[in-house]
Automatic annotation (TrEMBL):
It comes from Streptococcus constellatus subsp. constellatus SK53. It is an enzyme of class 3 (hydrolase). This is GTPase Obg. GO terms for molecular function: GTP binding; GTPase activity; magnesium ion binding. Its EC number is 3.6.5.-. An essential GTPase which binds GTP, GDP and possibly (p)ppGpp with moderate affinity, with high nucleotide exchange rates and a fairly low GTP hydrolysis rate. Plays a role in control of the cell cycle, stress response, ribosome biogenesis and in those bacteria that undergo differentiation, in morphogenesis control. Monomer. One of its GO terms (cellular component) is cytoplasm. Belongs to the TRAFAC class OBG-HflX-like GTPase superfamily. OBG GTPase family. SUPFAM superfamilies: Obg GTP-binding protein C-terminal domain (SSF102741), Obg GTP-binding protein N-terminal domain (SSF82051), P-loop containing nucleoside triphosphate hydrolases (SSF52540). Keywords: Cytoplasm, GTP-binding, Hydrolase, Magnesium, Metal-binding, Nucleotide-binding. It is found in: Cytoplasm. It comes from the Bacteria.
């Protein structure tokens, strides 16, 4: 089984805030001690951090749930609960993080050590010391901690490489990579020897260096899911230069020019922007019979159909013929080719922040099959979760908040009558007109 994994779906849950405490100061020589309950601590965030030592998302194959610790509860003597430590999750360079529900991209992690909060911890609930007023100097009210953010994420790894080798199976991409770098890809005389991307570093004679990725061979229909190509085409998206490797010997009976057109069609079908990247045509296997004649025919057809001809370098990976010129030209092209942005602003989530939308309605009213009125909405549900229903004062405060939000009026307008059942989550109470 391949140990390379470049996609994963995981669930993350930030820590809940600690509950606030109801307490009173009672000391022998301190009259009228008053409220003394402290606030709860902040819940831990879930943070992704880039680790250059990782190469795949294999760590997420079996461990798909990541949960940060909750904050400590508030304590007496006005002491706050301890905030929880953040949960650090290590990911490889080149990891794109999407919200699985909305499809929006949260972040693109490419720099070693880069950090991003993918789930925010909840704030701690307030203790009763926070609710003291001149009218109510001894409140028996505290808040529960705010729930931490919970979300499902889709991770995609797009390897970091300056140059991508593309071409049909068995055109010599793996052999070329093994010759120009120290990489040791599997090489065999059969199709799809390469089943995972291989990465290697090139250093030219002039001292330039760049990273090269050898991708599994493409075939016609790869962009629609045929063969292995569709699984690994994403890895070419970060490259700035494409080396299009063609078997100029036509040893398998294929036409080099038709191969060139077919691969470009697959790149264009997968992502139109891939054709913006400059290409160098690598005419491989020039040590084989008929290669020179096939190259002449290939150049002639290119001239007939294209106004601007790409650079063509005849090489032989086996005899190392023409490699230095190819690598120098590649380094030169890289120097004048800018980075390509993978995502525009419309694809990115504006702000990865956990909280309700201020513009969204505070609550929504629906009706269940048993004729009970159902209240929902982010703002209302958050108030509900943070209310300590063990304290009568807190319950009365929640009732006042609902009235202030206009829930009572809205229920009356919908036809609610005295004694009707009202439900928020699993909590039920009677409507009092």
């Amino acid at each position: 089984m391949s140990m390379f994994l470049d996609t994963a779906k995981i669930k993350v849950k930030a820590g809940n805030g600690g509950d606030g405490m109801v307490a009173f100061r009672r000391e022998k020589y301190v009259p009228n001690g008053g409220p003394w309950g402290g606030d709860g601590g902040r819940g831990g965030n879930v943070i992704f951090v880039v680790d250059e030592g990782l190469r795949t998302l294999m760590d997420f194959r079996y461990n798909r749930h990541f949960k940060a610790q909750s904050g400590e509860k508030g304590m007496t003597k006005g002491m706050h609960g301890r905030g929880a430590e953040d949960l650090m999750v290590h990911v490889p360079q080149g990891t794109t993080v999407r919200d699985a529900e909305t499809g929006k991209i949260l972040t693109d992690l490419i720099e070693n050590g880069q950090k991003f909060i993918v789930a925010h911890g909840g704030r701690g609930g307030r203790g009763n010391i926070r609710f003291a007023t001149p009218k109510n100097p001894a409140p028996e009210i505290s808040e529960n901690g705010e729930p931490g953010q919970e979300r499902e994420l889709q991770l995609e790894l797009k390897i970091l490489a300056d140059v991508g080798l593309v071409g049909f199976p068995s055109v010599g991409k793996s052999t070329l990579l093994s010759v120009i770098t120290s990489a040791k890809p599997k090489i065999g005389a059969y199709h799809f020897t390469t089943i995972v991307p291989n990465l290697g570093m090139v250093r030219t004679q002039s001292g330039e260096s760049f990273a090269v990725a050898d991708l599994p061979g493409l075939i016609e229909g790869a962009s629609q899911g045929v063969g292995l190509g569709t699984q690994f085409l994403r890895h070419i998206e970060r490259t700035r230069v494409i080396l299009h490797v063609i078997d100029m010997s036509a040893s398998e009976g294929r036409n080099p020019y038709e191969d060139y057109l077919a691969i470009n069609k697959e790149l264009e079908s997968y992502n139109l922007r891939l054709m913006e990247r400059p290409q160098i045509i690598v005419a491989n296997k020039m040590d084989m019979p008929d290669s020179a004649e096939n190259l002449k025919t290939f150049k002639k057809k290119l001239a007939e159909n294209y106004d601007e001809l790409p650079q063509i370098f005849p090489i032989s990976s086996l005899t190392k013929q023409g490699l230095s010129m190819l690598l120098d030209a590649t380094a030169e092209l890289l120097d004048k080719t800018p980075e390509f942005l993978l995502y525009d602003e419309s694809e990115m989530e504006e702000e990865a922040y956990y909280g309700f939308d201020e513009d969204a309605p505070a609550f929504d009213i629906s009706r269940d099959d048993d004729a009970a009125w159902v209240l929902s909405g982010d703002k209302l549900e958050k108030l509900f979760v943070m209310t300590n229903f063990d304290r009568e004062e807190a319950v009365m405060k929640f009732a006042r908040q609902l009235r202030g939000m206009g829930v009572d009026e809205a229920l009356r307008a919908r036809g609610a009558k005295d004694g009707d059942l009202v439900r928020i989550g699993n909590f039920e109470f009677e409507f009092v007109d």
